[in-house]
Specification:
The complex is a heterodimer. By secondary structure, chain A is mainly α. Chain A is built from seven helices and no strands. Chain B is mainly α. Classes of the chains: A mainly alpha, B mainly alpha. Chains A and B meet through α1, α2, α3, α4 and α5 of A and α1, α3, α4, α5 and α6 of B.
Chain lengths: 195, 182
């Protein structure tokens, strides 16, 4: 984050990137991001390739999209569309994400019985799913290296991972406990530093 | 204007939209209950097929609503079910996001931003574990995962191109007879 921005303007103020470029990114995501790694593909496009959003803003958007109701990819599209081009950007991003996928799934529903007869369908889908997981994993490693290294951040990330990933507790109650606790800790720290 | 089947779709999916905290996973069980047990729009095995399809297709898995809507009332059903699934939650997210993006820098805002980040990171890694376990990855899956992670981590190679290369390699392996359809 540039040192002169954070105190004055929220880093999430609308930026007005070209709307067609924005639509293109989300159309591509809506059509091609198969195998479950939608948000990792989005990270690669928005943060690494286009550099429209930095790591911190991406993580905030990701957490908000996951905490609020609704499909995560749609929520993410809405959040970043709004951030990158206001209401029009949000509309374009959500439509880009949903409309092609809507058409494709209906066509797949129509042809599924034929496709399901080929064992290759399932096998190739497994390969595709590995790429989705790989995208998520490499994104996780990269973000972990760039994020603040204070003990609260590391501790809260580990607690969340242990609860949801290892103990397999349901995500919603875990988030409802961890998010307020984490925010409260940082709030106390901010207050102390301000004094 | 709307016939009773379309209204039925709205009544089923709109409340679930608002309740889908944590995404589609949270409401799958209830979609099954409402559409199979209560409304008897489809059989259990049809539901399982649609669930598998919704995972294999691009886009959010909650597009299963479109498949169910199609089954109930053709294209209008698919459209109405998808709208009922996305409009209510999107209104909530839009309101929250525009409030958040307009709010001024304050200790609370900084605390929220810093407090949310580790939770998002924890969930990213938890997601990796969940998919690896659910897909019951064998050695080939693990090798693919390791190779693709390295490529995406160390290079700027397009993730979409990688997706298609892996799909093509898997298809070639299968048809060359090197590996069975496991």
């Amino acid at each position: 984050m540039p040192p002169d921005t954070p105190a004055k303007t929220p880093d999430t103020a609308p930026q007005h990137v070209p709307i067609l470029e924005l639509l293109g990114v989300f159309l591509k995501l809506g059509i091609l991001a198969i195998g479950g790694g939608v948000q990792a593909f989005m990270y690669r496009d928005l943060v690494e390739v286009k550099r429209w959003i930095d790591d911190k803003a991406y993580l905030t958007g990701l957490a908000i999209a996951q905490v609020l109701p609704g499909a995560n990819p749609v929520n993410l599209a809405l959040y970043f569309g709004l951030k990158l081009h206001g209401g029009l950007g949000a509309t374009a991003a959500v439509l880009g994400m949903v409309v092609p996928a809507f058409c494709i799934i209906l066509i797949m529903g129509y042809t599924y019985r034929q496709l399901a007869q080929f064992p290759a369908t399932h096998f190739i889908l497994l390969g595709v799913a590995s790429v989705g997981v790989a995208a998520t994993l490499s994104q996780g490693i990269k973000i972990s290296q760039r994020i603040d290294r204070d003990w609260v951040t590391i501790g809260m990330a580990l607690v969340t991972f242990a609860a949801v990933g290892v103990a397999r507790l349901p995500m919603v109650p875990v988030v409802l406990v961890v998010v307020p606790a984490s925010i409260l800790l940082f709030y106390v720290m901010e207050r102390r530093r301000a004094r | 204007m709307l016939d009773s089947r379309l209204i039925g779709l709205i009544v089923v999916f709109a409340p679930l939209s608002i309740l889908s905290f944590g995404g589609g996973q949270a409401i799958v069980a209830d979609i099954q209950y409402q559409t199979v047990e209560v409304h008897k729009w489809l059989t259990n095995s049809e539901f399982v097929d649609m669930f598998a399809l919704s995972r294999a297709a691009p886009g959010p898995s909650t597009l299963i609503s479109a498949l169910i809507g199609w089954q109930v009332d053709g294209f209008p059903g698919a459209l109405v079910a998808a709208l009922a699934m996305y409009v209510p939650s999107s209104v909530v997210v839009y309101a929250a996001a525009s409030w958040w993006q307009r709010s001024q820098a304050s200790p609370l805002r900084i605390a929220i931003e810093r407090g949310l980040a580790p939770v998002a990171i924890g969930l990213i890694f938890a997601g990796v574990v969940a998919v690896v376990q659910a897909a019951k990855m064998d050695w080939l899956g693990m090798v693919t995962l390791a190779a693709c992670t390295a490529i995406l981590y160390f290079t700027k190679f397009s993730s979409y191109r990688l997706l298609f290369i892996v799909g093509a390699v898997y298809g070639a392996l299968l048809y060359s007879g090197l590996l069975g359809a496991g």
